Amino acid sequence: MGGPGSGTAKIGGISLQQERFALAYMQLENATEAARICGAKASNNNSLRGTGHYMLHTPAVQAYIKHFTHKRLFKQKITVTRVLKEMNRIAFGNAADLMDEDGKCIPPHKWDKEFAATVQAIQVFECDENGVPVKFQVRYWDKPKVLEKIGTHLGMFEQAAEVPATPEDDPKAREWTVKIIAPKQYEALPAPEKGD
Question: From CA 139, how far away is CA 90, in angstroms rounded?
Fold first, then answer.
């Protein structure tokens, strides 16, 4: 006897019930409700929750959801390159671009796209007679957090974590010196003799 969805006709490696579940889950992002919609049998809500969890983690359902999620993102032109470009704008944007050459704030409608991407929110306190903000507060996106995400994507922190501490950084490391031979290969050399 199989799990949820067993005994129904298969379409491309996924049962009809699993397909209905996957489609419902992609819309609702709720496994319990998706299980209810696809007609999964359950005696109560807890049982239905368990069934939904089981169905969501079935390899065929995971593959189906992943395939159509990628397809939907591609259709909406949401690509890795585009996401990284937006993160790059936030990470390397310059807050000084808010000011003109005279040190006055540039009104929001005159910001270029590069600078505007660094701004999370604007709170306007005062506008001129034309409705242009003249007194406002700007809140930027969390630059360190975005830099950390980019660094993680590039694998920077994994490499940094593997580099042994230098004698200056760690008192326990003062007894030896590190010589880098090749990436991820290190050779411990004896500390120089006193008087050298």
Answer: 12
Q: By the 8 A CB rule, do 186 and 178 touch?
A: yes
CA R_g for the chain: 28
* 178, β-bridge pairs: 188
- pLDDT tens string 110-144: 888 888 888 888 888 888 888 888 888 888 888 88
pLDDT tens-digit profile of 13-46? 788 899 899 988 888 889 999 999 998 888 888 8
Domains of the chain: 10-75 (1.10.10.1400), 97-144 (no CATH), 164-196 (no CATH)
Strand runs labelled E in 54-105: none
Can you tell me which residue has the tokens 């579940």? 21
How far apart, in whole angstroms, are the C-alpha atoms of residue 18 and residue 9?
Answer: 10
Quote the Cα angle for 98-100-106, to 5°. 50
What is the separation of C-alpha 44 from the centre of its chain, rounded to a whole number of angstroms?
A: 35
pTM of the model: 0.39
178 vs 162: CA distance, rounded Å: 12
